[in-house]
Specification:
single chain; 164 residues; alpha/beta; Rossmann fold; four-stranded parallel β-sheet; 6 helices; globular
Length: 164
């Protein structure tokens, strides 16, 4: 099943497998009405693509700021083939979005580069709550599924690179 809109997720569906792979999914509780939709879609995609349910571990953190910290700890533990960082930042009346989004992106990128474990950026950064809801909706943007497909692809790629 794909997102059906010609997106990256639609192109990749069916071409990756999670069989024998382990994934860590770190989800922010802030804006949980949106992050829960991302989480459910991501986990569903991972299992639909052959990942055993017991090989998908879900961890929750308070907000997007904590995503790099948790992903770093998990990556260094070496138990996962890839990590998904899921969160949602919506523009408000302050500079919060700009300050947090850039640091979260930088932190997650550093974790991936420093540890060699793929870390997928599944953090929505939107102008409005309506945009976030649409992007998290499986019938809309389905960004949770896209994040899962990216994690599957990276785990497969890194697996091939590691075995030569």
């Amino acid at each position: 099943m794909s997102s059906g809109d010609g997106s990256y997720a639609a192109e990749l569906a069916g071409r990756v497998s999670g069989a024998g792979r382990r994934f860590g999914v770190v989800a922010s509780r802030f804006n949980s009405h949106i992050t829960e939709a991302l989480l459910q879609s991501a986990v569903q995609c991972l299992t639909e693509q052959g990942t055993a349910t017991e090989n998908v571990e879900v961890y929750r953190v308070p907000g997007a700021w904590e995503l790099p910290q948790a992903c770093g700890r998990l990556a260094r533990a070496g138990r996962h083939d890839a990590l998904l960082a899921l969160g949602c930042l919506i523009r408000g009346e302050t500079l919060h979005l700009e300050l947090i989004a850039g640091e979260v992106a930088r932190g997650l990128g550093a974790v991936a580069l420093d540890t060699g474990v793929p870390v997928v950026f599944g953090v929505l950064t939107t102008e409005t709550e309506a945009q976030a809801i649409d992007r998290a909706d499986p019938a809309g943007g389905d960004k949770g599924r896209e994040a899962a497909l990216a994690a599957l692809e990276m785990a497969e790629l890194f697996g091939r690179l590691n075995t030569g």
